[in-house]
Specification:
Shape: globular
Radius of gyration: 24 Å
Mean pLDDT: 92
Low-confidence stretches: none
Largest sheet: 11 strands, mixed
CATH class of the largest domain: Alpha Beta
Strand content: 15-25%
Number of strands: 23
Helix content: 25-40%
CATH superfamily of the largest domain: Mur-like, catalytic domain
CATH topology of the largest domain: UDP-N-acetylmuramoyl-L-alanine:D-glutamate ligase
């Protein structure tokens, strides 16, 4: 593509043909436009020298960097931008011929429930014969191709390349978790979404966003900016009406004329759940609106999954699939690391869950307690990540107030002292009765099993699907599920 077509407002003295766009200097060459967009941890401007050594001579850079760069690399062309996030997205979309417009694009955001809801939608679509791409915390899928999830949401350039690849494979639907970081950093900038889902909002990532209000504003971009401005004819928002921030979204979207569907466990929505039955083996409930009642049974556990299933079901109905087809895909869904069950020989049930925020941990414990038989107890093993929001550590302790036994241990300590993290958590307990500390996660899981009796449920929280533990800056192989299976 001619650079004049990518930047029609600029005058170039000659034709410059671009065959490739990159933000990785190792992949840049003489036919590349290198975009130096700054991400969460890395300033890509630092790699311009490497791209230049590889033969690249065309760069899109931030306005405040261009003067020094032009002095240093006099044989290169630098195009400056005062809003690199915006300009980058427009250039990439144009280069790849706007693949988002050819796909049914479904985005799920919220603090908790994103992965389960997104996985439910994706698995159901695939079970009904729909070709999909999926981007989430656990993995990225483009058709049958599996890629490691480097982030919950890929960077913008990688995402658009995946979209282009998806179209080439005949894929029609994209299901993606949209994290607050992704919305703030432009990883989904200017995409045309068909559907946007909001699960809930509770404290997380305040080390990055600073305040809870800023965290909400980042999440709201999916609805007020991307969905509201989407060119898709049948666009719609699906909102948890039980969450106060969900109510804020519903009000503003209504004022702006964006179609919405509200969902509730408390009779606050257009769609509501009733007659809920919770056991340690399955969940049953009725999904109701003014016209119909649909009976749903699933092996997913707890009230939190009633909300997730409602979201997935109503979204799939909006896409035109029949109740019968959707119901046929729901009963045996499995979500790795989301209330993932491991049974023990002595009748103790382990549940491994990714709950790593106060709200998620409290809800996971509620799931356990709701399914306990009379006289049985809940035991929770949890920690908190190092180099992440220290304010939530005592709140994690408070979230375990309804557990019968609590064992505090390491999560991903990263560069912090694990003992220091444990002490920060311990400050949140009102009472230390039936509270134990064991910094070694393997021994903590073993201690929980030692204290459990037949019929008890042990919740091992915080890492879920992760198969590593980060100590220092090293990822060491570690899986809660594997350690439980070794123990048993």
């Amino acid at each position: 593509m001619n650079l004049k077509d990518l930047f029609p407002a600029l005058a170039f003295s000659r034709d410059i043909i671009i065959q490739n766009i990159q933000n990785d200097s190792r992949q840049a060459d003489k036919d590349t436009l290198f975009i130096a967009f700054t991400g969460f941890e890395v300033d890509v401007h630092e790699f311009i020298s490497d791209a230049h050594l590889n033969g690249c001579r065309c760069f899109l850079v931030s306005q405040d960097k261009i003067e020094n760069l032009q002095k240093t690399y006099r044989d290169a062309l630098f195009i400056s931008s005062e809003n690199l996030k915006e300009d980058m997205s427009q250039v990439i979309l144009k280069f790849y011929n706007y693949p988002d417009k050819e796909l049914t694009l479904i985005g799920i955001t919220g603090t908790n429930g994103k992965t389960t809801t997104a996985t439910l939608i994706n698995q159901s679509l695939r079970a009904m014969g729909v070709k999909t791409a999926f981007f989430g915390t656990v993995e990225w899928l483009v058709g049958d191709n599996v890629y490691p999830a480097l982030n919950t949401t890929p960077d913008f350039l990688s995402l658009i390349k995946f979209f282009h690849q998806a179209i080439d494979q005949g894929i029609t639907h994209v299901v993606m978790e949209v994290a607050s970081h992704a919305l703030s950093l432009g990883r989904v900038e200017n995409l045309n979404f068909d559907c946007a889902l909001f699960t809930n909002l509770t404290q997380d990532h305040l080390d990055y966003h600073g305040t809870f209000e800023e965290y909400y504003l980042a999440k709201s971009l999916l609805f007020f900016k991307l969905l509201a401005n989407s060119c898709k004819k049948h666009k719609k928002a699906f909102i948890n009406a039980d969450d106060p921030y969900g109510q804020k979204l519903l009000q503003v979207l209504g004022e702006r004329g964006v179609p919405t569907a509200s969902l509730s466990l408390e009779e606050k929505g257009v769609w509501n759940a009733s007659d809920i039955i919770l056991t340690v083996n399955h969940t049953e409930f009725n999904l109701n609106n003014s016209d119909t009642t649909i009976k749903i049974k699933t092996n997913l556990l707890g009230m939190i999954n009633v909300q997730n299933i409602m979201m997935a079901f109503v979204l799939l109905k909006h896409l035109g699939y029949s109740d019968e087809n959707i119901l046929s895909t729901m009963p045996n869904t499995t979500i790795p690391g989301r209330l993932q069950k491991v049974n023990s020989p002595k009748g103790v049930v382990f549940l491994v869950d990714y709950a790593h925020t106060p709200d998620a941990l409290e809800k996971a414990i509620s799931v356990v307690n709701d399914t306990l038989s009379s006289g049985k107890k809940s035991i929770v093993v949890f920690g908190a990540g190092g180099d992440r929001d220290p304010k939530k550590r005592p709140l994690m302790a408070q979230a375990t107030k309804n557990a019968h036994i609590t064992i505090v241990t390491s999560d991903n300590p990263r560069t912090e002292d694990p003992e220091t993290i444990l002490q920060d958590i311990m400050k949140g307990f009102d009472s230390l009765d039936n509270v134990y500390q064991e910094v070694d996660r393997i021994r903590a899981i073993a201690l929980a099993y030692q204290k459990a009796e037949q019929g008890d449920v042990v919740l091992v929280a915080g890492k879920g699907h992760e198969n590593y533990q980060i100590i220092g800056k090293v990822k060491n192989h570690f899986s809660d599920v594997e350690e439980i299976e070794k123990l048993l």
